[in-house]
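Support case: iron/sulfur cluster complex. Customer-provided input:
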Amino acid sequence: MDYRPKILKRIQKKPIKVNYLKVMKERCLLCTCCASVCPNSGIDITENEVIFNENCTECKICVKSCPVGAIE
Ligand code: SF4
Ligand code: SF4
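Agent response - structure generated as follows:
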């Protein structure tokens, strides 16, 4: 029998994901290199932004691929 309160059960079902990678907007050229090398489809590129999504495992392959060193 699970005696956790309902709200706690709901929260604990979701894996807690913390993204540590950041893109320096002032450097980013939106060239999409990072997204194309990602093995996990962990990057979404919008009109003006690079966003790491929940698929990112922080393998850092994209960091090396960025031609201007915008990912840190
Ligand atoms: S590879 Fe670098 S410059 Fe290109 S979109 Fe990604 S973060 Fe921006
Ligand atoms: S760190 Fe790895 S998994 Fe995350 S976005 Fe970059 S290449 Fe993809």
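The two ends are 45 Å apart (CA to CA).

Case will auto-close in a few days if no follow-up is received.
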